[in-house]
Structures are given as structure tokens and as C-alpha cells.
Amino acid sequence: MNTKPKLGPLQIWNMCFGFLGIQIGFDLQNGNVSRIFQTLGAEIDALPILWIAAPLTGLLGQPVIGFLSDRTWTPLGRRRPFFLVGALLASASLILMPNAPTLWIAAGVLWIMDAALNITMEPTRALVGDNLPDEQRTSGYAMQSFFIGAGAVLAGILPWALAQMGVANTAPAGVVPQTVHIAFYVGGATLLLAVLWSIVTTREYSPEQLAAFEAARQAARGARAPSAVLQRSPGAFLSGGLIWLAAGAALAAFIVAARLEPRPAILAVLGEAEFRQDLYVLAGLIAGFGVLQILAGWLRARNATQNGFMEVVGDLFAMPAAMRQLAVVQFFTWFGLFAMWIYGAPAIALHHYGSTDAASAAYQDAGNWWGVLGAVRNGVAALGALGLIILASRLNRRWLHAACLALGSAGFIAMILIRDPTWLWAPMIGVGIAWAAIVSVPYAILAGSVPATKMGVYMGIFNIFIVVPQLVAATLLGFLLRTFFGNEAIWAFAIAGVSFGIAALAVLLVREAPGDEAPETARA
């Protein structure tokens, strides 16, 4: 049997069920960590830099996890060992987070939590690419999207529901309320049980079976055997690295000059714009990419290429064209999402509830309502995922994704215009539809564009285009709000809306692999 068989609905359900728990973990993090940080004394414009642990962990860890899982084969399989380790660590972190006694311990727990969730998540995405044939991949990722939405609904509504049951939703200054404590404990247990269910009920194909499936797939398409990838030369690595290193150094020098008191006369045009230390992170990212290329060039010049670092870097620079085009879409999409996650709760608290005091009842009510709005958003995403399964058989995936992103953009703008918090559920419908597409359609496009033997590493590299915009957001959003929007968190929704609009236009420029452009039924 050289053709990868289709899986039944129950098999796809079981394979994706672990995402229910993974997303409960992510959404408890996304919906409550800013609230915990502020409870422990964080100022509003310090939130982005405190959040930097999450994307930085993904940037460093995901390609490595993907690379390792591509080369793993154990009695438990290829991807499932990573599910298990990540789930155990993430569950423990969820229990620790609301008990963090200080702000910086909470930031450290966030780092561990996000690393653990990433260890579990990306191999789970790769498993869908491993186990499903081309014609079922959009349906598989849409099923993951359904569980992402369902998990996020449960996570979003938990603190609010606990408050309705009489659990204390306020606490003394510097203490996290019991509603958040119990929500995190329930989330940790649910995450572990859901992932264990997928581990027990799902089988994996061996590396030899996957190789045979890939050969048959390429033969059916009339494709030639993949030729050797033209490797980037040491000189190209060196010259590119020096350019990026110089750009990072120049930005750092500019920030230093802009922070001088008084500023040099040549920078008088900056007016009262405030440049804080968190902007150095952006300069460091740019310079760091340059250092990475210089190191790769040095290793290649010495023919020291038989190592994981050079394989991941080589795959990064040799990625398929569709993946490079999707990178632009992902950048603007996740920049907008990170703006929502960082500033959503404080934006609603000030703009709709009139409070900035994290110890006040109004602020905690706003935090709970933001959780409910997240549940609405993700409930729509869960239902929208089922709709995507149907629409994927009838519509071009690029146009489908663009339409969903446009609805999300409109939803973000409406969050600013609607003043009665009771009606904020309406724009969340548009954001929820966009979210259903974000966590499914790009992965379906990607899975058809990369070789099966590198599914894990390319899923990890693809995650770079999720975490880099989050890192950029973590360093730039505070500056943008201080400089142009009077440090009012509500305008983060405007930034998110514009970002989604750009992403919707960019996805129309993506060119899928031959044979993958048509709706799924046309390829079945």
C-alpha cells in the first residue's frame, strides 16, 4: 500500500482531541497573564516586554523540536513522546502561575509554560500532516481549529463562571483572585487528560511508510524526484549576516542617542517621543539574525554541516516559495493577535469600565467579561471550523482565508466604536471567524508544499513567522501607544485591525504548490 489511506471522522477526532487541552492552556495564559502581571504590580506599558518570554521561547524552541521529532522513532512513535513531555510540564506550570509571589517569578513561569505548550503543539500539527492525505488536510486542521475554539471557550468562561458560583473574584492588592487560581488548576488537569487521550487512541506511521507515501504522492502528481537543494554559499551567509548585524547595531545606536538628555539637535524632529529600553530587544533580534548567518557561513566554509543547526538554517533559507509568501501573511496576522492578547483586558477595563486599578471590582469585572468575550470569539471559531470543512471543498483556500481575515479586521475596529460592553460580543463574531481560519488554512497550504520527511522542522520554522511578529509587537506596541495614542490601550485594537487588513491582501499573493490550489473535492 503506497497511497496514504484516508482516516475516518472518529480517527481524526481522536488525533486532534489533544488540542482541546493545549488551547485551554494557551487561552488561560492569553486571557489572564496580563491580569496576573498587573495584580503583581506591572505598569500598563511594561506588559509587552513581560510577555516577550512567550514568543522568544517559540522562536528558539520550535525549529529544534520539529527537527528532533522528524528524527525520532520510539515505541511511543515519532511525535507522541513530545506530546507527553510537553503536557506534563505545561500542566505543572498552570498550577504554579497563579501562585507566583512576585512579578518576575510570574514572568519566569510564563517562559516555562509557553515552552511546554510549544513542545506539545507543533508536533501535534505535524502529526496531521503525517497521518492525512492531501485531500483531508484542510479538514484535519479545521478539526484542530474546532478543538482550539472549544478549548478556548472553556478557558475564557471559567473565571466568569466561577464568579457566578460565588467564588471570590477580588483579593487584596498583590494577590490573584480565587477565580483565577481554580481556573488554572482545572485547566492544568484538563490539558493533561486531553493530550493523553490523543496519545492512547492515535497511531503513527513509521519513517519507512511515510517515505513510501511521499514517493507515491509525487509520482501521482507527475513530479520528478526532489533534486538536491542549492546550498547557500559561505560568502552569501557572511555578507547577509554583516548587513543584518550592521542594521541591528545602527538601530541600537539610534535608540541610545534618542534616550540621551538632552537629545542631539539632529534628533529634535522626534519631539517628545519616548524611547524605552525594551526597544533594544528589537535591535538585538535584527543583530542576532545577522550573527546566526555569520556562524552558518563560518561552519559551511569549514564543511562542518552535518549538525542540527546547519540543517535547520539550511531549510530556513531553502523553504518553498509558498512558505515564504505565507510568512508575510503570518507576520501581520500574529502582530495583530498579539496586540489583542496583551492589551485586551486593560483596554476593556479603561475604555468600557473606566478603571485602571487592578485591585478594583470594576477592573476584575472587566477581566472576567474579557474572558467571556474570548469564549464568544472561540465558540464562533469552533463552529466556524466546521464551516471551513465544508467551504474548503467549494472555495479556493486563499480567497477563503482573505475573507475571514477581513471579517476579523472589521471586528477589531468595531471594538473601539462600541461603548456599551454588553454589545462587544458582536464584533467578536468577526474575530472568531478569522481565528478559525488562522489556525487551520495556512497549515493546510503549508503541508502540501513541504516534503514529508521535513514536516516537523518546516512546521517549526513556520512558527518563526508567528513568534517574530509577536517579538516585534512586544517591543514596538508600547512605543506606538505612548507616542501616537496617549498610552490608551483601546487603540491596540486599531493596530490589530490594520494588521489583519494587510494580511488579507497578502494572502491573495500566495501561490500554492501545483495541484493544491483547487478545492479539496477536486483533488479527492
Report what the structure shows.
It is a single chain. The protein starts with 8 loop residues before the first helix and ends with a helix. The chain has helices spanning about 10-15, 20-40, 45-50, 55-70, 80-95, 105-130, 135-165, 180-200, 205-220, 235-260, 280-300, 310-315, 320-350, 360-390, 395-415, 425-440, 440-445, 455-485, 490-505, 520-524. Helix 2 runs antiparallel to helix 14 (about 360-390) and helix 4 (about 55-70) packs antiparallel against helix 18. Residues about 225-230 have low confidence and may be disordered. It is built from 20 helices and no strands. The protein is mainly α. The radius of gyration is 23 Å and the shape is globular. The relative contact order is 0.16. The longest helix is centred in the middle third of the chain and has 31 residues, at about 320-350.
Write a brief structural summary:
With 524 residues, the chain is mainly α.
What does the secondary structure layout of this molecule look like, with pairings?
Layout: H1 9-16, H2 18-39, H3 47-50, H4 53-70, H5 80-96, H6 103-131, H7 137-164, H8 178-201, H9 207-220, H10 234-258, H11 279-301, H12 308-317, H13 321-351, H14 361-391, H15 397-417, H16 425-438, H17 441-447, H18 455-484, H19 492-507, H20 520-523
Helix pairs in contact: 1-8, 2-5, 2-6, 2-7, 2-8, 2-13, 2-14, 4-6, 4-18, 5-6, 5-8, 6-18, 7-8, 7-14, 7-16, 7-17, 10-11, 11-18, 13-14, 13-18, 13-19, 14-16, 15-16, 15-19
